Fold:
Amino acid sequence: MTPYTPGEPAPRDRPAARTGIASSQDLAAQIVLVARGDAAAFDAVFEQLGPAVFGVVKRVIRDPAQSEEVTQEVLLEVWRSASKFDAGRGSATAWVMTLAHRRAVDRVRSVQAESERERRVATADIPFDEVIEAVESSLDRERVRRCLNSLTEVQRESVTLAYYRGYTYGQVASLLGVPTGTVKTRMRDALIRLRDCLGVAE
Amino acid sequence: MKKLTRASQRDEHTLAGAYAMDAISAPDRERFERHLTGCQECAREITSLREATALLGTAAAEPLPASLKERVMAAAAVTRQQPPADEAITEPHTRSTRASTRARAAARVGPWLRSLTWPGRLALATGGAAAAAVLAVAIVFGLANGSMQQQLDQAQTSSQQIAVVLTAHDAVMTTGPVTGGGTATIVMSHARHALVFTAQGLRTLPASRGYELWLIGPAGTRPVGMLPAGSHGMTGPVIASGLRQGDHLALTDEPAAGSAHPTTPMMLYVPL
Structure:
């Protein structure tokens, strides 16, 4: 267990201050502390992943007020179910971001009629452009941008429509005008490629 | 990459990418999860793909809106955590409150309440009810944790009124310092013309003295009541109803039996 002073966000003695896998060990340790009711550890997790949770939730949901609401739900869920985190089954970041993304997707799907969403997205820009524009200095973002660029166009579009917009593979297929089987395959291929490019350990 | 024995399993597994991105309908998700339980290698692949999607997520990070952290921390302080064992009760949503959370609430709610600022009212627009519920639990615990049975009785009789204020749609929570030491917290509902007052860390008074709460305004000076002393430095709650336009809330040190009018300098005087 990484020792740290309660109230301090996280040990900063290594280049792990940014969010992402580099700090995953610290984060995992903190989630374990959160499960024991450690409010300072929760604070640290919040500081590290709160903006990422809000960012991904907002990308999927769009509406700022609803995004805030879901972000709160997700972070409270982290507090509540920290004991369910199993470091042997992925990083703390992946655990939290999975909770966040799924909760956001569930929200949009329960709120909006699918047909309405499809109609709206048909006129929308491909979200990848926004991702690219939003990219600034963060190393994670640089890495993600580089790796997204290494995908084929259909792969990239499949991933961005699915992940950042929260569409099902069926919806992505109709948006891109390709068979669902093709989209399923492209999505898996794309994520495998992204995984390898991002250097995420299995 | 892997040898799959059956064609159906292979078909099933092409959903791995869609599943890892939640790009899958609820029935498909269930079906795929059943598939995962029977295929360790598939589960490992999902784990690794989730690492990739997590980075897609962190790349989208945005600054958090102000006050979101306070709200989450306050809610966490009164939200019971799931036990590690798998016999946990699974609830679809995390909601604060209820008696079972009191013990945890008391341990943590204090610092977060204190982190709010005094003159700046914290209008808890959407999170109002939740935040108020947070306070409700803190208050009820503070009282229940007191040593005197009388306090418990009072808590029970007034808890309904208190709950009405705390859960009002327009409940506003304010907190700030008390002259002479301690922190006061007020949850007020204009719609209900009422407020709930509680304090922490007030200076200990001799047994012959007590803290008395007042409403002072154009309608006159009305005693609200004596603050019940609790343990762990928690005082209250006291409900003040019948608020009028222009009222102030005041706190003074009075004989234990109470006074009809304030007889000592006010250690708190807040416009409502």
